[in-house]
Design brief:
The complex is a heterodimer of chains A (245) and B (296). Chain A has 245 residues and is α/β, with parallel strands linked by helices. Chain A contains eleven helices and ten strands. In chain A, helix 4 packs parallel to helix 7. Chain B has one domain. In chain B, helix 9 crosses helix 10 and helix 10 packs across helix 11. Classes of the chains: A alpha/beta (245), B mainly alpha (296).
């Protein structure tokens, strides 16, 4: 781990020895990684490597053992809604659209943990600026939108809580390449403008590494290798397995 | 014609009671996706609360407020103590929870006569008195007018709650997608408890409106069947459907009972059953319900 002491002060999330699984099937085996404040970190891995399980265990959706420290406190065992109040927002795989609510209601629900009504409305309006498609469809049932629009909505909904850490589960899944590219550009914008740290798990290694500062490679529930985005892009094993070149 | 109108009026009053209980069924269905077979018995129980508060000297409206609060607590307690533990273990299978609500039905029904408020029928005032007005040659009782007004205000309160408040938005969010709702910071279990409490609170109003002479533990048995018919007809996921369905069921069963000798007063439930059957065959989602459409 480069840096040591000075970097520890900025550490937002530290996961150590994380074990999790579904019933008798253990998926994560002693997983460990960190995310610093304001940093974009990507976890790469093939199908079944445990990417989704990692995020679900971190955000309290799945029972796990080990240690998850967020903002310096141990949070393992807390419920997702409690973690959201602490500043961790999770966009689940498949976007988690609240289909029966309108686009506008989805965004307002995203601000459930906040009480500053005027600012909430201002935030909703700013998301309509960022994603004009959402503004055009604000009174439409969210479930009737296209996959890309729903992904934009999911990210905007999660950010309505003004989190310090955003967890993104395969945002590129089911989206056309152009839409995915646009999406990652937005994620980089949001990170730069708001300082929101992002932990993204992806199969699309090229795009994810292009916006990330650091990355980890996950295989059968363990970290295989890690490094800066640049190191991973130049790592032969990573290139063969995940970058297709 | 005036005879037809007369029985329509009576039907509207009964229908408003069914609608009010159907609203309670719809609240639970919308927040949890479940049918609560104990809804009627919970309403019967909290109507006893109203009767006890009334006998203690409170005016009827204040006694109703006490009963509504008691109903809320009863519904919330049922969710926390019985429904939640079972649903945590049933892995998304609704059947065990339906069985719990049937158990609750039997339990509350058996318990009611053994409560400290006494075994026999408790006397209860007629809501809105016994007066009436003449309209188009038929008699429209104050009770019918009052019952319909109460129903209208229930609808207004419900609409304001679900469309205009943060709590209502959270309840709808949990109903549509519990997982995503918890990820935006909503305590899902607490919302389900509130949903059960609200349903039982609305059920209390149905209980009070359905009293004919006195309160006993059979008070809500047949209203529950009619309320199921109403919710089936209107659509289990629509409050508006519950209201329209309730009024239709009330008027329909009253008119059939009067004009079809075979049915008469003894077989009044028959039209309700026929209606449930027809809706399930012809339009399973009900008049106002949404067919489940999933975009993949």
């Amino acid at each position: 781990m480069p840096g040591g002491g000075e970097l520890m002060a900025d550490e937002l999330l530290r996961v150590d020895g994380l074990d999790a699984g579904y019933g008798p099937v253990q998926v994560l085996r002693g997983l460990g990684f960190t995310v610093d404040e304001g940093e974009i970190v990507v976890i790469l891995g093939a199908n079944g490597a445990g990417k989704t399980t990692t995020l679900r265990a971190v955000s309290g959706m799945l029972p796990a053992s080990g240690s998850v420290r967020f903002k310096g406190q141990e949070v393992l065992g807390r419920r997702p809604d409690q973690l959201c109040s602490l500043g961790m927002a999770h966009v689940p795989q498949g976007r988690g659209t609240i289909t029966d609510l309108t686009v506008d209601e989805n965004l307002r629900l995203g601000a459930y943990t906040r009480k500053d009504h005027a600012e909430i409305s201002a935030d909703v309006a700013s998301w309509y600026d960022t994603f004009p498609r959402l503004g055009e469809r604000r009174d439409q049932a969210a479930g009737s939108m296209s996959g890309g629009e729903q992904q934009m909505l999911a990210i905007a909904r999660a950010l309505m809580s003004r989190p310090t850490l955003l967890l993104l589960d395969e945002p590129s899944l089911g989206l056309a390449p152009l839409v995915t590219k646009e999406l990652f550009a937005r994620i980089a914008d949001i990170n730069r403008e708001r300082g929101t740290a992002v932990l993204v798990v992806e199969q699309n290694a090229n795009l994810a590494l292009s916006v990330a500062a650091r990355g980890y490679v996950l295989e059968t529930g363990q970290i295989l290798t890690s490094g800066t985005a640049e190191e991973l892009q130049n790592d032969d094993a990573v290139r063969q397995a995940y970058l297709g070149r | 014609m005036s005879e037809f109108l007369q029985f329509t009026f009576i039907g509207l009053q009964r229908g408003a009671v069914y609608a009010s209980l159907a609203i309670a069924l719809v609240i639970i269905f919308r927040t949890t996706g479940l049918l609560n077979f104990a809804q009627g018995e919970m309403a019967m129980f909290s109507t006893y609360f109203v009767s006890v508060a009334y006998d203690a000297g409170l005016p009827l409206p204040a006694a109703v407020v006490v009963g509504v609060a008691g109903g809320f607590l009863l519904g919330a307690a049922a969710q926390v103590l019985l429904v939640r533990p079972v649903s945590n273990r049933s892995m998304g299978n609704p059947l065990p929870i339906v069985i719990v609500t049937i158990g609750l039905f039997l339990g509350l029904n058996g318990l009611a006569p053994r409560m400290p408020w006494g075994e026999t029928t408790r006397p209860f005032p007629v809501p809105f008195g016994t007066g009436s007005i003449e309209l188009l040659g038929a008699t429209l009782s104050h009770r019918t007018i009052g019952t319909l007004l109460v129903l209208a205000s229930e609808v207004a309160v419900l609409w304001l709650l679900f469309q205009k408040t943060r709590l209502g938005l959270a309840l709808r969010g949990v109903a549509s997608n519990a997982e995503s709702s918890s990820l935006v910071g909503i305590p899902v279990n607490r919302m389900l408890t509130v949903g059960w409490g609200l349903a039982a609170a609305f059920g209390t109003v149905a209980g009070v409106l359905s009293v004919e002479g006195g309160v006993d533990n059979t008070l809500m048995i047949s209203p529950l069947v009619f309320a199921f018919a109403a919710a089936t007809l209107g659509g289990f996921d629509s409050e508006l459907g519950a209201v329209v369905g309730g009024l239709i069921v009330g008027v329909f069963s009253e008119l059939v009972a009067h004009y079809v000798d075979l049915v008469g007063q003894d077989l009044k439930l028959l039209p309700a059953f026929v209606l449930i059957l027809l809706v399930l065959l012809l339009r399973p989602q009900g008049l106002f319900g949404r067919a489940q459409v999933t975009r993949v």
